[in-house]
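User: Run a structure prediction on this.
Assistant: Running it now.
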Amino acid sequence: MDIQLSDGSTWSLAAVSDLLARRCGGGVHNLQLLSNGQSTILSGTQISSGLQVIVKLTITPGTAKSEAYFLAEWRRKGVPVPNIILMDDASRNHEPDILVMERIDGVPLTNSRPISADMVKRIAQLQSLMHLTAGKGYGRPVKNTPWHGVANTFSDEMEIEWEQRLAQLAQHRIFPGDLRSKFVFATTFIETHCNSNNTSNASTLTHSDLSMNNIILNKNGALVIIDPNCRLTHPAMCAAYTFLRLSLEEGPNIAQIYKNYYLSYSGICDSAFDAALKLRAMLSISTWLKKEKFSEAVSAVSIAGLV
């Protein structure tokens, strides 16, 4: 079986096994491919310890280091996340970065429906704890300093997104009215909150992909957060995405319960959350349209009040 990494290179399972043997203290056997996207995720057994592990191979420099850092910081805050066993980001002949962590025995919440009010209350609690970890700057983490984003301000972060992802959507028929003016208004509103004295409005370490796919219900009935899309930004941007996904997948009632709990725990005001929702919806819609998920994109326009 061959595995294609995100840079287009092709690896056999035997080659991946040899890679892990060279760089991961004896390696991992019984490798099985779980998913293949921006990161290649495999399961297996660590030879030296006998532990069941998850192996993530990433091509983008700094991705493994950022995830290891974010997870370690959240664990210090009391957030249940996988334990990091090994991180190796030494570049060798265009080889991928490697992250090895414990495998959580459980199932994603997407396979544990219906999602209850108690579950979304717990998700809001955990997310609020995660957002207590302050960072510097905004956007994707800098390669060797994952606590620092590539942009100096929230507005700078959003302008990068506009140029790379959103400008081409401005004339799309899915958006009634002037998308740019809505983008600027929401960005400016959150920028004001980022500059306030309330620390809950500053740049924090965020998951940025906290859907029910990335929350595991373990064998003891506890929730465990996995697979962050690491970003330093205003915390409402992360929570808004969770709200959007809950609205689409679980319905407006459970999404509203989540939002109410999150605002209560985080101290973020409703208007800042709604501004963040507009921005996160724009970003998500750009992704969904590329993936031809037109129904989700249309629904997100309505949910975020972009009509």
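Residues 2-102 form a domain with the Phosphorylase Kinase; domain 1 fold (CATH 3.30.200.20).
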